[in-house]
Automatic annotation (TrEMBL), chain A:
It holds the Pfam family ABC_tran. This is ABC transporter ATP-binding protein. Residues 5-230 form the ABC transporter domain. It comes from Brevibacterium sediminis. Keywords: ATP-binding, Nucleotide-binding, Transport. GO terms for molecular function: ATP binding. The keyword Phosphoprotein does not apply. The keyword Phosphoprotein does not apply.
Automatic annotation (TrEMBL), chain B:
Keywords: Membrane, Transmembrane, Transmembrane helix. The chain crosses the membrane at residues 34-55, 75-92, 104-127, 152-174, 181-202, 214-242. The keyword Nucleotide-binding does not apply. This is ABC transporter permease. The keyword Transmembrane applies.
Length: 305, 247
């Protein structure tokens, strides 16, 4: 697969903090990435450096094989939708969309019109008077209808209700199927986007701590549901990252793969295997600071099994 | 039987378009800032001056009256320059524009706006010339010193001074965004002190008569050419400051 973004040893320091610490990664063409991490982990800094809106302290960034800084040829092919985009004072959504049509070469006006009605966006109200969710809709529509070859969505749905979020996910995946492109979606709502994203990049304290396909991440752990006693026998000695129980029934997520013996036990005890929550895995990996020493042992053992 | 239909390839190729002209359109989204407020200021200053001239004339004063009121929109263009950055820079970044495109487009937008207001200034001056100051002997735009080289010369002077004010506001707004209020205030203080030092130097050397003579002696066009050079320098300074501005 061709990579469209190459980042090598990227570091960004502000006066007192290190936002990005020696980050290296590559982003492939025509895939949907989830850029996940806690607040202040460095997600926005990374995306703004890739779109040349911010500058690296050291390290190299190449987008489509070139340095994106002041490079219209490269910037032309990207779109960055920010969490709280600022718009010109007097402008309304129609102005913003008309301008976007001017600057994004793959802009699809019919798609934009359809999204405006999907999100019920008033076109004539000044943007500063729109509700938080409606303002977010302006950015989301620009991001989708621009069909840029690389589109970054940075927490694009602030103020969206569940219905609007689902609309966003549905339109994104449907349009992506027809017009494959690279999409980088940064989100806190990990389980909501889990079915959307093909690859997961987790960033924590400015470092990349996970860069794998969603399937690989999910296969790191298994989730079993059923009789609590049987489950306790199964998970003995393994690291459990999540446990819920109701009476005699438990649902437990544990790290590691299943051996043949494990599978027999699961069959005998009538336990069910259910999909692992991506969120549990990501939360655990960003919590390693808290339980580094104890996790390290179990981790190595369960990964061997 | 099968038919092979060739679909034209490249249905998704990009349409070439001028991104700098796009920035001009983007700036004119703020029609109020770029068009209506400068025009309103000019018309208001004109109306107020006209009424004052009428009051004076009706009091029986029979001399020619010259007002400097037509300069008011010039100062407002410093605000336009600052607003061009404040209102539009972040959105221009979201439109994947380079800082260079933003800078050139904003300056072009300012030039269009300045040309418009200069045209109004020239038209007012021509009317005053034709009607001997609205029959009152009161002049708002037709100032002999500025009009020495005719309407085109006057329009040029007005245009350049408007651009100079715009670029100053533009640069200060960028500088403020990069450096913050404290460093901006310190810099302005240093500039004020430097100007004061210049004035003190002239004072100590008792050179004021020569300075005034030089300013009056230099024709408006000559000063406008200096202002044009200064505008170019400030525009370059703006771009160099903007190059490292982050969102």
């Amino acid at each position: 697969m061709n990579s469209v973004v190459e980042v090598r040893r990227l570091t960004k320091t502000y006066k007192t903090t290190t936002a990005l610490d020696d980050v290296s990664l590559s982003i492939d063409e025509d895939s949907i990435y989830g850029l996940l991490g806690r607040n202040g982990a460095g997600k926005t800094t990374l995306m703004s450096i890739l779109t040349a809106q911010n500058f690296a302290t050291s390290g190299d960034v190449e987008v489509f094989g070139e340095d994106p800084y002041e490079n219209a040829r490269v910037l032309n092919r990207m779109c960055f939708v920010r969490e709280s985009q600022k718009y010109p004072d007097d402008s309304n959504a129609r102005h913003a969309l008309t301008n976007a049509r001017l600057f994004f070469p793959h802009w699809d006006q019919d798609f934009a019109d359809q999204l405006v009605s999907d999100f019920d966006l008033p076109l004539k109200t000044p943007i500063k008077k729109l509700s938080r969710g409606q303002q977010s809709a302006v950015g989301v529509i620009i991001g989708l209808a621009s069909r840029a070859e690389i589109t970054f969505f940075d927490e694009p749905y602030l103020g969206f209700d569940a219905v609007a979020r689902q609309t966003f996910y549905d339109r994104l995946i449907a349009d992506y199927a027809e017009h494959p492109r690279t999409i980088v979606l940064s989100s806190h709502l990990i389980d909501e986007v889990a079915d959307l994203i093909e690859k997961v990049i987790v960033i924590d304290h400015g470092r990349i701590i996970m860069d794998e396909t969603t399937e690989e991440v999910r296969s790191r752990a298994v989730n079993v549901v059923g009789d609590a006693d049987a489950i306790n026998r199964l998970v003995a000695g393994r690291e459990v990252i999540h446990r819920e129980s109701l009476g005699r029934v438990a649902s437990v997520t544990m790290l590691g793969h299943l051996s043949n013996a494990d599978r027999e036990l699961i069959d005998d005890a009538n336990l069910d295997l259910t999909p692992v929550s991506l969120q549990q895995l990501v939360v655990r990996s960003t919590q390693t600071d808290l339980a580094e020493s104890s996790a390290a042992e179990t981790d190595s053992r369960s990964l061997q099994s | 039987m099968t038919a092979v239909i060739d679909h034209p390839p490249g249905a998704r190729t990009s349409r070439p378009k001028n991104r700098i002209l796009g920035v001009v359109r983007l700036q004119f989204t703020n029609t109020q800032t770029f068009v209506w407020v400068p025009l309103l200021i000019l018309v208001a200053a004109w109306l107020i001056t006209l009424i004052i001239h009428w009051i004076i004339a009706s009091a029986g004063v029979d001399s020619q009256m010259y007002s400097g009121g037509s300069q008011t929109p010039l100062w407002y263009f410093a605000v336009v320059g600052a607003q061009a950055v404040n209102l539009t820079f972040y959105f221009s970044q979201a439109m994947s524009l380079t800082r260079r495109e933003f800078c050139l487009g904003s300056l072009t937008a300012a030039a269009i706006s300045a040309a418009g207001i200069s045209a109004v200034f020239v038209v007012l001056g021509l009317i005053e010339q034709a009607t001997d100051g609205y029959g009152l002997g009161g002049y708002f735009a037709y100032l002999p010193w500025v009009w020495e080289h005719g309407p085109l010369g006057a329009g040029f002077v007005y245009f350049v001074l408007t651009m100079l004010c715009f670029v100053l506001g533009f640069w200060f707004a960028i500088f403020y965004k990069r450096a913050g209020a404290l460093i901006l205030t310190i810099s302005l203080t240093v500039i004020a002190l430097a100007l004061l030092a210049g004035a003190a130097w002239i004072n100590v050397n008792r050179a004021w008569p020569e300075v005034w003579a030089a300013i009056v002696g230099a024709q408006a066009i000559g000063l406008a050419l200096w202002a044009l050079g200064l505008t170019a320098v400030f525009a370059l300074g703006s771009y160099l400051t903007l190059r490292r501005l982050t969102t």
